[in-house]
From TrEMBL:
GO terms for molecular function: fatty acid synthase activity. Residues 53-73 are annotated as: Disordered. Keywords: Multifunctional enzyme, Transferase. Residues 89-221 are annotated as: C-terminal hotdog fold. PROSITE patterns: PKS_MFAS_DH. This is PKS/mFAS DH domain-containing protein.
């Protein structure tokens, strides 16, 4: 089978409802004879609905074998993690980080608030990320909360505009079972290069280029507030009515 994502484009973000169930279908087609790449599509629909929405398209490929987090890794240890904390990197104060994200529209529950420390050095932001001790990781290649928190450091030098992942290129899972990781996010011409390693510097996940795009109305889900006109009950009034009204 394929063990790497050559490219994945998020066409329509999947908004999970507060209640109810979402049906999800991932389709992998046969390999292309010339490249060996396999097309993949992701569709979803609310439970009980007949209409499927295509949320993502991409291609899968084959690179190296995935190992457990406690076994030797095939890839070489990235130079980004040879010294920790990184040399010449400046620490970032995270005291109000998640409060500021919530105010900007990013609301993360306790399980997803995994960013523990961060540093900046040139075009690279470094971070330490860890899961809550009660979180089970055995069912995942990499736990979603761990991967999501690994990208939070990218918000440290972002503006006020909310951005979401749009495309992923060169995604490889090098190890499973990680509960705490070191992260390096580096700005590159094609987007942001992502390197995630365990506390010993051994690779866990790598992404050649992640592209973010501003959040749109269609990607942010239904509004929490809506305008509704409510008619007033007729008042009981026996006096004379005025000739003019001012609103």
């Amino acid at each position: 089978g394929c063990d790497a994502i050559d490219e994945l484009v998020i066409e329509t973000p999947l908004v999970v409802p507060v209640t109810g169930v979402v049906d999800l279908t991932v389709t992998v087609d046969r390999a292309d004879d010339a490249t060996g790449h396999r097309p993949v599509t992701v569709h979803a629909r609310p439970e009980g609905s007949d209409a499927w929405t295509r949320h993502a398209t991409g291609t899968l490929t084959t690179t190296t074998t995935t190992t457990t987090a406690t076994a030797p890794h095939t890839p070489d240890t990235p130079d980004l993690f040879l010294q920790w904390p990184p040399a010449n990197a400046h620490p970032v104060d995270l005291t109000a980080f998640y409060d500021e994200l919530a105010a900007a529209g990013y609301g993360y529950g306790p399980a997803f608030q995994g960013l523990r420390a961060a540093w900046r050095a040139g075009d690279t932001t470094y971070a330490e990320v860890a899961l809550d001790g009660a979180v089970e990781v055995d069912r995942f290649g990499v736990h979603p909360a761990l991967l999501d928190a690994a990208l939070h450091a990218g918000r440290l030098d972002a503006g006020d505009e909310l951005e979401l992942p749009f495309s992923w290129a060169g995604v490889r899972l090098h190890a499973t079972g990680a509960t705490a990781v070191r992260v390096a996010l580096t700005r590159v011409p094609a987007g942001v290069a992502v390197h995630v390693a365990d506390p010993d510097g051994r690779p866990v996940v790598s992404v050649d280029a992640l592209v973010l795009r501003p959040r749109t109305a269609t990607s942010s889900g239904p509004d929490l507030l809506a305008l509704e006109w409510v008619p007033l009950a007729e008042a009981d009034y026996d006096g004379d009515l005025p000739d003019n009204y001012t609103l």
